[in-house]
Amino acid sequence: MGYPKQNYKESNMKYLNLGCGNNKFNNCINIDSRKECNPDLVCDIKELPYEPNSIDGIYALDVLEHIPRNLVFLTLKSWYKILKLNSFLILRLPNIKRISEKYLQGKIDGDEFSRLIYGGQEKNEFANFHKSGFDKETLTELLKSIGFKEIENNIEVKCNSNNMVLKFGKVRILR
User: Fold this and answer.
1) Looking at the domain assignment, is residue 125 inside a domain?
2) Pick from 170, 166, 169, 171: which is nearest to 63 by CA?
3) Where would I find the beta strands (DSSP E) of the chain?
4) What pLDDT is attached to residue 1?
5) Interval 138-151: pLDDT, tens
6) Contact present, 170 and 83 (Cβ < 8 Å)
7) Of 14, 21, 53, 93, which has the fewest beta carbons less than 10 angstroms from its beta carbon?
8) Could you tell me which residues are beta bridge partners of residue 55?
9) pLDDT in tens, 33-65
10) Which domain holds residue 15?
11) What's the CATH code of the domain at 153?
């Protein structure tokens, strides 16, 4: 997938790992709203404290589905604003179309379907509730409406068959 190889503290490049939880990347500024995860920065990922055009890349792995549906557009737009030209956004999230097809084909039961669509909702884990859902077509359309351009969608990243991984960029298209 091309995680940045250099530690962000030793580089001029700034990469963000949003909603990091316990999955920290040495080469990113790890951000989460929960202090107990011990991220580099504790803040709401919907309102990041960065100047426009100041970030080289954003990893949002298993995060977007936790943002309320009515705030997704504004959140993605705010991420786009802080990204530099020729930067990227990598998203990994459940593919509701694929999950629904598996359920209808009898490949997963109702409990697994509910867990995948609505989140694990473990005891005392307020963050593991899914508040929005997407299929590839809907999410692609939304990202393009903000200004993102699709770069890749076959990305090497840990991903089970119920998830989709998309790479979009803030790039200038020359015609």
Assistant:
1) no
2) 166
3) 15-18, 29-32, 41-42, 55-61, 83-94, 149-152, 163-170
4) 40
5) 999 999 999 998 77
6) yes
7) 53
8) 83
9) 999 999 999 999 999 999 999 999 999 999 999
10) 8-95+132-170
11) 3.40.50.150
